Amino acid sequence: MEPPSRTGFADEIDPAGLLAGASEHITMKRPVRILFGAVVIVVVILGVALARVPLFKSRQVTAPRVRDLPVNASRFAEVLSRAVRLNTISSEDPIPPHGSALLGLHALYRESFPLVHAKLRREVINGYSLLYTWQGANPSLPPVILMGHQDVVPIDDPGAWSEPPFGGRIVKGFVWGRGTLDDKIAVLGVLQGAETLLAKGYRPQRTIYFAFGHDEEISGEHGARAIARELKRRGVRAAFVLDEGGAITKDVVGGLKRPLAVVGIAEKGYVSLELSVKMEGGHSSMPPGETAVGAISAAVSRLEQHPFPAHVDGVSRQMLEYIGPEMSFAKRVALANLWLTGPVVARELASEPATNAGLRTTTAPTVISGGVKDNVLPKTASAIVNFRILPGDTISSVKDRVISTIDDRRVQVRVLPFGSEPSAVSDTNSPGFRAIQKTIAQVFPDALVAPSLVLGATDSRHFKNVSSQIYRFLPVTLTEKDLARIHGSDERIAVSDCPHVAQFYAQLIRNACSN
Asked: The domain containing residue 484 runs over which residues?
């Protein structure tokens, strides 16, 4: 059959019908193409995600367990018991009302650790804080600073304690009392660790400083800050600093079967802002559309309804990169692909207050006031809102965002004293972090290690001009219930855990000096 001529084709085929048919053909194929394209994209993304899982390797280290640092558990527990009996509650007064208790602690140190006091130089700073210097064999090496604090927080409800908070009783295998976890255990652990090494004739290659403040619980202005200033004046630049902050947690992180040792590589900043409103007063029988109390309440409500954004980056991302490879396959897939799953992971973490605090600058209204009588319109109302500042934010940026969020010129915003900027983030690839991680593996071989963000402030913030590498870890094992004991009731530590604290500090000194 001959093909139709152009003229014949045009005569026999209706152009309108042809276009309609083509349109129908295209319309039918477009959803298929879109679906096919979507399937291809999903397959590619899934392939990339699965391909990344084998690259998501464990960051844990292994090392032989330490067995040559014997510490008598009963004796150590008895020293801790005696330390707890000395009531060293913090006080804003430069001359603490419990100064005699602090001096009693100093006497206990001399009695319990004679080799330390015979071999190390001991200096008293501002009457109650202590600086020990263990001179290294090689003065060209940068030193290491180990920290702890001697003061404790007050007792809110003595009746809630199973044992007297300053009784130091050893009952049911535990030492009970304020300071057993925060933070007399660290001070005694450092001193016992050094005493153990000295008994073996050990001398460190690099100089080791012990810095023990006496007012950490009220900002450390007269203790740790004064020690840091003195070290800076002497030109000390430390390889790293280790203070309290993280710990070894059991059954706290879902999906992990092993204990998790979290080492703080940064800590959040702190600021409280006062919001205040001045308006016309008068009789409550003729109220305006909005009162001072209403205006300040609305401002607080807007801050709560518009929290700072959550970020799965920085320290929180580093932590996930350390714990992710140790979790189930499904969670490994999710955490190995935060470029894809980040929003979902952030939403999940933000659903719990403890993990939410690690993702964002937090907003906590803590005080609100206004008015003097039920039938009088107040002329002023105010509120105090506390913010714990994520690294990357600043006190200034927090204030600016608060003003923008409230968006009410009547509300004045003032920064209250005693704020602190978030710390710098220390390096997980530094010799200091590696020494800490290795030491944890040697003393607590069942524990995994991960960097973390410390939510509160520690004395270590005063040492930012002495070292760029500051870490925060206390070598004690805590369950979720134990976490509530810190600054709470029934603070205690197992007698069997006490030797490990001393062994950790002793081995850390050896590891730090082997680099």
From this structure: 73-249+426-514
Q: Which amino acid is at 337?
A: N
* 31 three-state secondary structure: helix
Sort strands 260-267 and 240-250 into parallel, antiparallel or unpaired.
antiparallel
Same domain for 470 and 489: yes
Q: Which residues share a beta bridge with 212?
A: 130, 148
∠ Cα 416 421 422 (to 5°): 135
β-strands 448-454, 121-125: how paired? Answer: unpaired
- Gap between the Cα atoms of 491 and 483, Å rounded: 9
> Tokens 């660290």 sit at which residue?
186
Q: What pLDDT, in 10s, does the model give residues 446-477?
A: 999 999 999 989 999 999 999 999 999 999 99
Verify that 438 and 388 share a domain, yes or no: no
Residues facing residue 454 across a β-bridge: 267
Which residues are bridge partners to 108 per DSSP?
none
Angle between helices 314-323 and 338-349 (to 10 degrees): 100
CATH number of the structural domain spanning residue 278: 3.30.70.360
Q: Of 387, 452, 389, which is closest to residue 423 (Cα–Cα)?
A: 389
Read off the CATH number of the domain in which 188 is found: 3.40.630.10
Nearest to 214 by CA among 248, 183, 249: 183
Nearest to 192, CA basis, from 79, 272, 94: 79
Residue 26 has pLDDT above 50, yes or no: no
Look at the chain and count its residues: 515
The encoded tokens of residue 483 equal 């976490």
- Euclidean distance between CA atoms 192 and 102, whole angstroms: 18
The DSSP annotation for 49-81 comes to: HHHHGGGS-------PPP-S----HHHHHHHHH
Burial class (CB in 10 A: 0-12, 13-18, 19+), 456: middle
Whether 126 maps to a domain, the answer reads yes
Query: How many beta carbons lie within 10 A of that of residue 313, not counting itself?
Result: 14
Q: Alpha carbon of 461 to those of 8, 89, 167, 221, 465: distances in Å?
A: 91, 21, 32, 11, 9
User: Are residues 177 and 272 in contact, defined by beta-carbon separation less than 8 angstroms?
Assistant: no
For residue 408, how many C-alpha atoms fall within 13 Å in the half-sphere facing its CB? 21
Active site residues: 151, 216
Instruction: Give the position of tokens 């071989």.
Output: 445
Q: Does 306 lie in the same domain as 171? A: no
pLDDT at 418: 85
Per-residue model confidence (pLDDT) at position 173: 97
| Alpha-carbon gap, residue 64 to 443, rounded angstroms | 9
The token pair that represents 468 in the structure block: 């760029």
Nearest 5°: the CA angle 248, 198, 495 is 35
Residues 182 and 236 reside in one and the same domain: yes
